[in-house]
Amino acid sequence: MKTCKIYFILLLFLLGCRNHHEVVKTAYVDYKVEEEKYQPDPTIQKLLEPFREKMNAEMNEVIVQSTSDMRMGRPESKLGNFAADATEAMAEFYTNEDVAFAMHNYSGLRIGSIGKGPITIGRIYELMPFDNYLVTVPLSGAEVQQMCNFMASKGGWPSSSSLHYKIQNDLAMDVRIDGNLIEADKTYIMATNDYVVKSANYQDYLAAKEMNNTNIYVRDAVVAYLRNIRDAGNKLEPALDQRVINLDK
Amino acid sequence: MKRRSFLRKAAEAGIIISSFPIKSLGAIADDAVKITILHTNDVHSRMDPFPAGSGKLEGFGGVARRATLINRIRSSNKHVLLLDAGDLLQGTPYFNLFKGEVEFQAMNAMKYDVATIGNHDFDAGVEQLATNTKNANFQFVNVNYDFRNTPMNGLVIPYVIKQVEHIKIGIFGVGIALEGLVPKAWYGETRYLDPIYHASTTALRLRKEEKCDYVICISHLGYKGRSLDINDVILAQSTANIDLIIGGHTHTFLDMPDARRNIQGQPVLINQVGWAGIRLGRLDVTISPRQNNRIESRSLWVNELERLDIE
Prior knowledge:
Oligomer: heterodimer
Distance between the termini of chain B: 61 Å
Largest interface: A-B, 66 and 96 residues
Shape of chain B: globular
Helix content of chain A: 25-40%
Number of helices of chain B: 8
Strand content of chain A: 25-35%
Order of helices and strands of chain A: HEHEEHEEEHEHEEEEHHEHE
Strand order of the largest sheet of chain B: 6-7-9-10-12-11
Radius of gyration of chain B: 21 Å
Number of strands of chain B: 14
């Protein structure tokens, strides 16, 4: 009896001294946090309230009315087209340069859609939350081709209506500015945000360029652009114009 | 006589041993511990639900509703851990106006336990990140940012260990390369170190020295993708001693955890729940004393991954 107790204890010790546990089961679920499913927690609501009030006071100004829904997409989209067109117009306004075209990195625009009707400042902050500056850089025609090849390889990034090209085999074909085929040796001014120029993720030749920095955030420039439309008694009319056509699809 | 008695007793002992939860599938020991891991990533300052005009996202997200859900889960589960995998900041005017104050306060109120740092968490500068971190009730973990010459020095630790009954859980964090992704002026003197090397050594330490039963890596490396040299899949497959990677950065909605094998052939789960607090991830991990007769046991649990039937 005594012996077997010792053996038993020894056995337990052998089990125990491994000092390890093991996962026997993993169960998973993703909860969808939907408005109608859960009541807002009152403690958090109270915490948010003073911030929200202050934010709304600054951000709820309607800066324009839009005639249609805008969504992000490739190769072109109403939201991307509007953002790039606004960027080109405002770059010309602030620099007095003859800007050839404007573009943005796709993930620089952070929300997928803006509905038709009133657009508040807050929505433009959500679209362009980053404190990125509106800049221009001079590119040779060859570099414009490189830039367009790069955008083509991504399936089309937001670019302004002055620039038209077609995507074929992941390359940009028939690249035109104001309707004219680009010339390799000519200089073209591109407007964009400073992140595109400086980011190591994009094109090496861009990082080496001297930027003309307006020191104005792109977001603020776009807000000014929309206010101008409103104050002139007009509406924003987002449109698709086949500026980028993907022949690969 | 004595010998016969011993044999008989040994047989009894054998019965006792085999009635240990020798784990037919589904049978779980009484001394098993269930840990409920809740997680978010890339919330990007989405304090309120998406407004009208947000397409299919309209009405999703919002911290006040998430808090209600978290409280509900906490009230019916004993051991809950709440984790965030970075980029808690940037994306709505809350951040532009208040520089992170609201996001940190809300995370404190929701009682987050541990978080890691994403690239956008530097967007108001490393000094502001330090100011926010000093007000955090949750712990930032990271093993591959050297913050020594920044205001973040001393505010971030490599890992935390949570003791849950007789189970030890190690939680560490890894972050993405900042150069080219974040302006230098914002991350300052923060130095990026090799995440695979530092994850490997930290996980080994947690397993062997700290004797953790379960090791979680909170990662802002990104799930996978051609622009990522290092990502969660590579991390999972080229290291050992990590059981679970809670990921972020790529805004990936994984509808179920991705099960991979590590460098030793043992399973690693990777999970990520998109962005903006549209979803809250939950993993219920049940941990039991190891069975002596099942050397292969650790490779079995991936087969026992099941969807929780609650919503």
